[in-house]
Structures are given as structure tokens and as C-alpha cells.
Design brief:
The structure is a homodimer.
Chain A: E1 2-10, H1 27-39, E2 46-47, E3 56-66, H2 72-82, E4 87-94, E5 107-116, E6 129-131, H3 137-145, E7 149-152, E8 167-178, E9 181-188, H4 195-209, H5 213-222, E10 237-243
Parallel strand pairs in A: 3-10, 5-6
Antiparallel strand pairs in A: 1-3, 1-4, 2-3, 5-9, 5-10, 7-8, 8-9
Helix pairs in contact in A: 1-2, 3-4
Chain lengths: 244, 244
């Protein structure tokens, strides 16, 4: 068997998310259909993780294996020719036997983009969270820094997805203003369901209300989803990079 | 009569261009329809200039007059509520009697974005010109600098649009790399039809071929459209700013 590791980019606006679903319009299904054309056999791909409907990727990674060998240049070229124009393959490489895009991922970086100005987004309508109220990016950054480290992140997990082990490790978490945009970057070994979006929604809420770090710490310590803020919308979120 | 000056942003992908056309799906028509809802009367708007199908705007300006007065905040809010989500109003202000968005414009800046990497655009599919071949942005910048100044730009005008006076003044023209992107900015008092796109297409062609400034100057001097290169695609072009 031959093993591949591919990196892809997509605009998640038109899709039901990464993961295949019955009757679904998922990115995984589009890529598998394109691989079928190239390999002439059904290929199952494994993503580094799911992304929800509307979430984008700058560097999603997936792996697959096949009985036939195809050159990496041919894989990239053939898939990019077949795939819809809002899904693109950035690279393909031969991976070691047993490489698994999900289990072998060491950590991931997500980018969350906020458009912060009086007028709503037009060019970036499906690509940013629009906030008309003035957000202090320095304060947002301070509030977010409370969450760096290893904690039980139950407060920042979709209520229906509670598991046994809710401890996760956030390695980096920053907010930075760039003109009308605020870019939030978060790197963690592994994420809970909706974790980035709940962290962003909560931190923005606290920033706007003028709350300080103790309030963020109280929410974290409560281990209760209802203590945190709203889930920021999916269309501001980008899976930026998966590290192996 | 009351006079207004508005600034708007749009993703031109889904539209036939700025200018109203019979049976057309133009940005001007969408804005006039939204104004009709707000004012209860037919309002004609005047854009600073046309943009072609697929061309975007970060700061298109239009003017109009009305018999009824509306607060600027109400104009922005009402239009942004009615307009399709890929057209947005950034600001509205009261303009002096007789203000004319086209005739009063002093100069305009266009941005042209190239995505320069091996893999085609996915997230930016309708927003950049994808070039897989390595483009030297410094050389591109040098070639473009030949065109700064006042010249007869017949070579860089769509052949069907030749007028009596083909002299235009380019005040600024630069190319700059930003990661995988190359941003070309051009400021001129006034533009010929397809001028920016033909300049970009020609300069990229010369850069890739390794030609030098003398070649660009020869094309300019020939005053002949066939001497220049292809017209770069519309979807990389953004009307960035109109100065008054």
C-alpha cells in the first residue's frame, strides 16, 4: 500500500463541513470523489479533524492509502482540475507506512478573524465575524492570555459534547489588530467541540463589557458552559496549520 | 434638493459590473433599488466610474440627490439592511450642491492582487489572479515604473475604446510582494478602458520573459494595443480609493 499526506485549502461557505454525512455536501466527499476519478477506486481519506459547516481551512491535512502509486505532482494537478474551485490542494507527499492525519497530529493552529468597523462586511461577508462596536484588541489579548496552559475547558465546550477528559493544553493564544481586522490565533494539542468559537465569543463579550482577567478565570474555573459567552459564528474561523 | 456622497464596497463576482444595463444585474441597479425603498422615489446614482463584471471595490464612491432629507446614519443602516450581502455601504455624507462623483474625482487608486504559488486559489478563487510561475516582484516593480508620468496610453487601452485624447497621467505605480501575494497599486487622474488590467498583464508577461525596461518603453511608444500583452482577468482588480 502507498501512503499520502496532502494539505488543502477551502472556503467552507457552501459546504456542510469537513466530515462526510449521508446526503451531505461535505468537503471530504468532494475530495474522495476527485480521488476516485484519479485512482479508479474508492479511497477513504482521514482529515486531521472535522471543521464545522461554514468554517474555512488554509491548511487542513488529510491522509489516505492506495494500491496504485501516483506521482505527487499528478495528485495535486488532477485533484485541482476536478475539485470545485473553492476547494484546492496545496501539496501532496509520500507518507510513511501507517501515517494517520488525525492521530499523528501534534498540535493545530486556528485563526479567527473579526472585522471591527461601523459598516458590515461585503467583500468578506462569509469570511469574518462583523462587530460594529469598538473592540480593544490589547484588552482582548490580555483576557485570552488567561486561558494559556493546561486546564479543564468544560466551560468552553459545546454542552452536548461533554466527554470524560476535558483537559486540553493551549500553547499559544493571541489577539492582534491589523487595521479594521482583529486576528486571533490559537494553538493547542487538541480542541474540544466549538472550543475556539466559544473562547472567541466569550473573550469578545468580556472585552466589550470592560471585564478583567479575574472574570475570565472565574468562567474557566466554573467548568460550566452556561458561565461562558455565545459561540462566535463559524465563518470567521480558519484551520490554519496542522503540525506533525 | 439634498446631495449625498456615499462610499461602498462590493464583491463583483456575481454582478455584470457597476453600470446599469437593460436586463443587467449591476451593482448600480441593486443600490438604486435599495434607495427606492428608503426614499420612496426613483433615485439615480452617479458612480465615480464604471467597474467591469467581476471587478471588486473597496471604496467605490457614488453621488445622488433627493427631495427628501435622510440622516446619513439612516442611509447607511437602511441600505445595508436591504442590499445583498456582497454589496455594503461604508459611509454617507452630505455633499455640496452639484457634487458629482464622476466629474469631481481628482484621482483614483486601483489595487491588483496576484496569488503567486504552485497551487491555485481556493479561498480567494474569485479575488486574485492565480499565477503558478515564479514572479519577481522587484523586477515587476521596475518594469511598471516606466509607465509613471503623462503619456499616450493607446497601447494599454482596449482596442474598441480608442478616443481622441489618449494621454493619461499615472501618479504612482508599484508592485510589492506580501507572502504568496503580489499587490500592484496604481494611482492616476483618469483611466482608459481596461488600462489597469492591460498594464498588469503586460508587466507580468515581460517579467516572466525576463525583459527589461526598454521593452516596456517600446510598447508604450508604439501606441498600438497589439504591442502590449494580454488583459489580466477582472477578478484580481479592486477599485480601492477615489480622491476628491
Amino acid at each position: 500500500m502507498y501512503h499520502k499526506k496532502c494539505v488543502c485549502e477551502y472556503d467552507g461557505s457552501r459546504y456542510s463541513g469537513w466530515q462526510s454525512q449521508i446526503g451531505g455536501n461535505s468537503i471530504q466527499q468532494k475530495i474522495e470523489a476527485a480521488l476516485y476519478k484519479l485512482y479508479g477506486e474508492k479511497i477513504n481519506i482521514i482529515g486531521s479533524g472535522r471543521t464545522d459547516a461554514g468554517v474555512h481551512a488554509l491548511g487542513q491535512v488529510f491522509s489516505f492509502r492506495s494500491e496504485i502509486y501516483r506521482e505527487n505532482k499528478a495528485v495535486v494537478f488532477a485533484l485541482n482540475t476536478t475539485l470545485p474551485r473553492d476547494i484546492g490542494i496545496l501539496s501532496s507527499e509520500d507518507a510513511p507506512e501507517g501515517f494517520h492525519a488525525q492521530f499523528d497530529a501534534k498540535n493545530k493552529t486556528y485563526l479567527y478573524r473579526i472585522l471591527n468597523r461601523p459598516a458590515r462586511a461585503a467583500l468578506d461577508a462569509d469570511r469574518v465575524w462583523f462587530r460594529w462596536d469598538n473592540i480593544d484588541a490589547a484588552r482582548l489579548n490580555q483576557l485570552l492570555s488567561v486561558l494559556k496552559g493546561s486546564y479543564d475547558f468544560t466551560s468552553f465546550c459545546a454542552a452536548e459534547s461533554i466527554k470524560e477528559n476535558m483537559v486540553r493544553t493551549i500553547n499559544a493564544l493571541t489577539a492582534e489588530r491589523s487595521g479594521e481586522y482583529i486576528n486571533i490565533r490559537i494553538n493547542a494539542d487538541c480542541f474540544l467541540h466549538n472550543m475556539v468559537r466559544i473562547i472567541v465569543g466569550t473573550a469578545v463579550m468580556l472585552t466589550v463589557k470592560g471585564e478583567d482577567e479575574s472574570c475570565m478565570f472565574k468562567i474557566l474555573s466554573s467548568k460550566n458552559r452556561t458561565a461562558a459567552g455565545l459561540t462566535a459564528p463559524p465563518y470567521g474561523l480558519y484551520l490554519e496549520k496542522v503540525n506533525y
